[in-house]
Amino acid sequence: MSVHKEIKRITTHILQEMKQRGEKISMLTAYDYSMATILDDAGLDVLLVGDSASNVMAGHETTLPITLDQMIYHAASVIRAVKRAFVVVDLPFGSYQGNSKEALNSAIRIMKESGAHGVKLEGGEEIIESVQRIITAGIPVMGHLGLTPQSIYKFGTYSVRAKEEEEANKLKSDVLALQAAGCFGIVLEKIPATLGKEVSESLHIPTIGIGAGPDCDGQVLVVNDMIGLTKGFKPRFLRQYINLYDEILGAAQAYIRDVKANDFPNEKEQY
């Protein structure tokens, strides 16, 4: 049975219980108050204020340009809407890599200024010190492995990661290190489904997949992709549930026609 009607607020403890009893965790991105209100009312377990806002909200080619201040703005907007979901926020590029003190300060700013419930960091062994320092301060941390978009210029491609044995073995080592450091969950992005299954079964914390197969403990998508607001982006892992691009395009064109024809506003739409 879904936890939707049983509890008032999703917590890291609830997410752990969901993994233990085999209940899948639902997760989508959210960046603003209006969308977060709808998603929370729908019963999403987790809302991710993703640095993907850099792409879908600001039009950048990568996630790298978005700043900590901008992430806090988006996170605060989402938090004001949410009554039930657990809200986790991406630490943006440059706010945690290579400096655990800066990572802690960035995480503290997100928690204090937005009211978020946790933060997410990309990477494995190389960021363990930052993860540990943040968790020691009492801030929940979610990991992110596989395709890590903040490292796109290092990879040079958005293709599937960890297909080769060496990279797969590193990923398996990294997930155990993140779990040992105290992460409450890990996002696995764009890896072979067999590896997603193996990793998920090896951990006692939940895994959230995006292009990582059906055996992860939950799934996440960028909401703009899922509802068809993002034109022309249709990777294999994406299931588009509605095409809002065409719906909104049609509505806007109808509005233009009515304005041009002096049909809007009519007598009932004036004072």
Structure summary:
This protein is 41% helix and 13% strand. The chain is built from eleven helices and eight strands. Helix 5 packs across helix 6.
Provide the helix percentage.
40-55%
Poorly predicted residue ranges: none
> Span from first to last CA?
50 Å
- Please tell me what the overall shape is: globular
User: Averaging pLDDT over every residue, what do you get?
Assistant: 95
Instruction: Provide the β-strand percentage band.
Output: 5-15%
Strand order of the largest sheet: 1-2-3-4-5-6-7-8
Task: Supply Rg.
Answer: 20 Å
Helix/sheet category: alpha/beta
Helical run tally: 11
- SSE order: HEHEHHEHEHEHHEHEEHH
Count of DSSP strands: 8
Report the biggest beta sheet as strand number plus sense, adding barrel if it closes: 8 strands, parallel, barrel
Keywords, separated by commas or semicolons:
single chain, 271 residues, alpha/beta, 11 helices, 13% strand, 3-methyl-2-oxobutanoate hydroxymethyltransferase, pantothenate biosynthesis, Pantoate_hydroxy_MeTrfase, Pyrv/PenolPyrv_kinase-like_dom
List the helices and strands and how they pair.
Elements: H1 12-21, E1 25-29, H2 33-42, E2 46-49, H3 53-56, H4 68-79, E3 86-90, H5 100-114, E4 118-120, H6 128-136, E5 141-146, H7 152-155, H8 165-181, E6 185-189, H9 193-202, E7 207-210, E8 218-221, H10 223-226, H11 244-260
Helix pairs in contact: 2-4, 4-5, 5-6
Description:
It is found in: Cytoplasm. Pathway: Cofactor biosynthesis; (R)-pantothenate biosynthesis; (R)-pantoate from 3-methyl-2-oxobutanoate: step 1/2. The active site is at residue 189. It is an enzyme of class 2 (transferase). Its EC number is 2.1.2.11. The chain is of the alpha/beta class and 271 residues long. It contains eleven helices and eight strands. The chain has helices spanning 12-21, 33-42, 53-56, 68-79, 100-114, 128-136, 152-155, 165-181, 193-202, 223-226, 244-260; strands at residues 25-29, 46-49, 86-90, 118-120, 141-146, 185-189, 207-210, 218-221. An eight-stranded parallel barrel has the order 1-2-3-4-5-6-7-8, surrounded by seven helices. Helix 5 links the parallel strand 3 and strand 4. The relative contact order is 0.11.
